[in-house]
Amino acid sequence: MDIGKNIKKLRMEKNVKQEELAEYLGVSFQAVSKWETGSSVPDIALLPNLAVFFGVTIDELFRMPEEAEFERMENMFWHERRIPAEIFDHCARFLERVIRNEPKNVRAYNCMAELYNHRAKSDHELAGEYAKKALELDPEEKRGWVAYLEANNGVCGDEWYDNHFEVIEYFREFLVKNPGNYRGLYAIIENMIADKRFDDAIPYIEQIRTAAKTHQYETYMGDVMLGRGNLEKALEYWNAAVERFPERWQAYCDRADRLKKLGRYAEALADYEKCFTMQEPPRISDGLYSMAQVHEFLGDYDAAMEDRKRIIKCLKEEYHTFSGEGIDEQKREIERLKRRKAEDK
Known about the structure:
Strand content: under 5%
Structural class: mainly alpha
Number of helices: 20
Order of helices and strands: HHHHHHHHHHHHHHHHHHHH
Number of strands: 0
Radius of gyration: 27 Å
Distance between the termini: 55 Å
Largest sheet: none
């Protein structure tokens, strides 16, 4: 790390001159100047006093420049399956410091949210494994059942747990402050439909028709029709979404998601393939993930493994990602599918 740049930054934040720092340390101001320009580095014996003078830890004297710290962290969210506790704590302290100094730094707040979400995801993954072990040992034990469902965001059949009331209320207030906001509309509609609040969702669906001018009006109206028991009308809306917006790969992906849930697997697979192939690189591989799930459900493990290999190929060729969790996850899934195939023979 460039300790000289950090010394200069800390000195300017403290609003002191090179001479003042030099006097405190018992060195010449020329020595301080050389540190800050990178011509030399402070003697290791001076590090404790430097840390005391600036009110930081010795580790913080060597911390990365802010932009590099952000970039390292954001890459870590994508590449690392689990973040060690000491690195998590370092990231949290860095972000807390940025937020104290820059209370309106949106990037810092987003990173803080992503940091905790990353840990929550990895913690839930571990919790799920422990819960499965508990269920293997005692299939009648309710605690293991509850823990597994909670870890995997499963539905437990209890309205108190399964509804999205708080999310809906948050975005209802959010949209009062940010009328017509696309992401707010998207969130409230998705959660209202998940809770079968179809009448409540329709006014927001009408708003998204204007806010987005995409296929989503037809898609969500199809969801409402399905929720009300009218499958034929639902299919009309979903087909209309693709017919009106044939250039949008998202329209095919959304229709595929719905066809998949209806068990119309061949049609869903065709739409997922279409949504992937029609994109311009770098492509989103969501459709390939869904294809892998469908193929595995149908017992076509070879096809599911091929889907996973295509994801790896996409990451390498289009995102220049050759290692990390994105790749490792697919390799684990391929090995798991190999075992399933062998067990089913």
